């Protein structure tokens, strides 16, 4: 039981921070940052939804939102948005299910098998959340790196060259955390499924034994008059 609690709480810890990292990564503005910041008087960051410029000297930040979501955008931007939003939704639901499945939460306290299944569903959701999260963040980072390398290889200088920033790193960390927490929860389910099932069947057999014993005791303590009356009634019925 102690190991089960440890696995649940470690999984909950990673699930909480992983879901938070994915959500912060999706809605922050530093997926791309200018690589030549030593020569610039401002730091330029691009996110999935807007682009921000921060003055190095006074720290004033100015952000410009991209055009409407229905406008024409690059395939990299559209697919990364879709994958990160999907990862956010799956990881959020995975964390909520995990909270309901914790043994310390007073939700279905007399149904250990159902709570274990809730933990399994949570683990599967977190594993599924890690797939679009890691795909979107790694693909975005690789695309930025390939674009910058090709420009350097062809000696093309556009004034501003980008590398992937901390928002992209945060998306990778959140995705890996989802994989870790999902693996812990699914292992927790399969390790302790038989134990909980045995306890459930033992409790059911015990309740069934109590019920049978009560029935026997009730029949034993019937008054003699009621027993004789029932026999006479049975004879009359046959006749």
Automatic annotation (TrEMBL):
GO BP annotations listed: monoatomic ion transport; paracellular transport
Protein's recorded name: Claudin
Entry's transmembrane regions: 7-27, 120-142, 169-192
GO MF annotation: an example: structural molecule activity
Record's function text: Claudins function as major constituents of the tight junction complexes that regulate the permeability of epithelia. Forms paracellular channels: coassembles with CLDN19 into tight junction strands with cation-selective channels through the strands, conveying epithelial permeability in a process known as paracellular tight junction permeability. Involved in the maintenance of ion gradients along the nephron. In the thick ascending limb (TAL) of Henle's loop, facilitates sodium paracellular permeability from the interstitial compartment to the lumen, contributing to the lumen-positive transepithelial potential that drives paracellular magnesium and calcium reabsorption.
Species, as recorded: Tychaedon coryphoeus (Karoo scrub-robin)
Primary localization: other
Subcellular location as annotated: Cell junction, Tight junction; Cell membrane
Catalytic activity: K(+)(in) = K(+)(out); Rb(+)(in) = Rb(+)(out); Li(+)(in) = Li(+)(out); Na(+)(in) = Na(+)(out)
Membrane topology category: Multi-pass membrane protein
InterPro entries: Claudin, Claudin16, Claudin_CS, PMP22/EMP/MP20/Claudin
């Amino acid at each position: 039981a102690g190991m089960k609690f440890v696995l649940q709480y470690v999984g909950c810890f990673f699930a909480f921070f992983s879901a938070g990292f994915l959500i912060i990564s999706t809605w922050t503005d530093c997926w791309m940052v200018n690589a030549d910041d030593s020569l610039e008087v401002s730091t330029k960051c691009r996110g999935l939804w807007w682009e921000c410029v921060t003055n190095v000297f006074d720290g004033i930040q100015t952000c410009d939102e991209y055009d409407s979501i229905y406008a024409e955008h690059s395939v990299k931007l559209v697919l990364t948005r879709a994958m990160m939003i999907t990862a956010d939704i799956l990881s959020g639901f995975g964390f909520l299910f995990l909270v309901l499945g914790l043994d310390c939460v007073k939700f279905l306290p007399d149904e250990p098998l159902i709570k274990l299944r809730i933990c399994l569903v949570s683990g599967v959701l977190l594993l599924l959340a890690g797939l679009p999260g890691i795909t979107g963040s790694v693909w975005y980072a690789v695309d930025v790196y390939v674009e910058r390398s090709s420009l350097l290889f062809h000696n093309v200088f556009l004034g501003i060259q980008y590398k992937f920033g901390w928002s992209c790193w945060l998306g990778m960390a959140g995705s890996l955390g989802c994989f870790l927490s999902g693996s812990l929860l699914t292992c927790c389910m399969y390790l302790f499924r038989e134990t909980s099932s045995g306890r459930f069947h033992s409790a059911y057999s015990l309740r069934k034994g109590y019920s049978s014993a009560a029935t026997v005791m009730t029949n034993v303590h019937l008054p003699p008059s009621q027993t004789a009356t029932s026999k006479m009634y049975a004879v009359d019925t046959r006749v």
